[in-house]
Design brief:
Number of helices of chain A: 8
Oligomer: heterodimer
Number of strands of chain A: 0
Low-confidence stretches of chain A: none
Largest interface: A-B, 61 and 58 residues
CATH architecture of chain A: Up-down Bundle
Low-confidence stretches of chain B: none
Structural class of chain B: mainly alpha
CATH superfamily of chain A: NADH-ubiquinone/plastoquinone oxidoreductase chain 6, subunit NuoJ
Distance between the termini of chain B: 59 Å
Shape of chain B: elongated
Number of strands of chain B: 0
CATH topology of chain B: Helix Hairpins
Largest sheet of chain B: none
Helix content of chain B: over 70%
Mean pLDDT of chain A: 82
Shape of chain A: flat
Strand content of chain B: under 5%
Helix content of chain A: over 70%
CATH topology of chain A: Four Helix Bundle (Hemerythrin (Met), subunit A)
Strand content of chain A: under 5%
Chain lengths: 171, 100
């Protein structure tokens, strides 16, 4: 049963990824990218990594996607945007995304239902939870945490510098 | 149970899709999106290997990949905005006259 659920989620992830790289409209591509992230999160959950699954949704599908969507919205100005506003929402365009996310929704509903809990509950020693990761992260991998902090600080400064308005007199 | 080979092939497929997108698209935003897909494929591989050996190291590497992806997106989108301001387009072929 677990491998059946895995095949479904993997199929959804691959189809959504293929649709992501072939869309012409950036917002549609981002929509399919979010579905890819959600499917990957479900796969993490299926092979016993609930902490990674939660992070995948919170950080990838949440934070990083919001950044992408903000920038996409910022860049679509002018008459192109007006032309797009006139055909703002057509349900037919989101049909594929709705279909793929419905498959994921049914999988999650099945996983949460009580009769599935008996069949699918993974062996407790297979699951690697947040406690095990946290214990290792803040003891033997302490240097890695500091490197990650440094990386984020560098990215913050870099993004701030790159995002400034370009001065015309600097030529 | 999901076997390691299945996860390996899944990760490989996602990575190939990402490479395909990176090579085919000429829009800077889509190239960043393809890089995200490739990073995700590698993350799947790390977590899968970690759970195959029943070791939490894989998920710790996943945390680092997540940090890396966040930094990469912040800097990359800064570059996207800067490029749009200068060339009013996101076509990377426009940047070929950068040497002038």
């Amino acid at each position: 049963m677990t491998s059946m659920l895995f095949y479904l989620a993997a199929g959804v992830a691959i189809i959504a990824a293929l649709l992501t790289v072939t869309r012409h409209n950036a917002v549609h591509a981002l929509l399919y990218l979010v579905i890819t992230m959600l499917a990957i999160s479900l796969i993490f959950f299926l092979f016993g990594a609930p902490f990674a699954a939660a992070l995948q949704i919170i950080i990838y599908a949440g934070a990083i996607m919001v950044l992408f969507v903000f920038v996409t919205m910022m860049l679509h100005q002018g008459e192109l945007s007006v032309k797009q506003e006139s055909q703002l929402y057509r349900p037919a365009q989101s049909l594929g995304a709705i279909l793929l996310s419905t498959i994921l929704l049914f999988e999650v509903i099945y996983l949460l239902s009580p009769q599935a809990a008996v069949i699918i509950t993974p062996d407790t020693r297979v699951v690697i939870g947040a406690k095990e990761i946290g214990l290792k992260l803040y003891t033997s991998y302490l240097l890695l945490v500091e490197i990650a902090a440094l990386l984020l600080l560098t990215a913050l400064i870099g993004a701030f510098h790159l995002g400034r308005r370009h001065q015309e007199n600097s030529k | 149970m999901i076997s390691a080979e299945q996860l390996l092939f899944f990760s490989l497929t996602l990575f190939v899709i990402g490479v395909f997108g990176l090579l085919v698209r000429r829009n800077l935003l889509f190239m960043l999106i393809s890089i995200e897909i490739m990073l995700n494929a590698v993350a799947v591989l790390f977590v899968a290997a970690g759970s195959y050996h029943h070791n939490s190291d894989g998920q710790i590497m996943y945390l680092l990949i997540l940090t890396l992806a966040a930094s990469e997106v912040a800097v990359g989108l800064g570059l996207v905005i800067q490029m749009y301001r200068r060339t009013l387009s996101l076509d990377v072929d426009q940047l070929s006259k950068m040497h002038e």
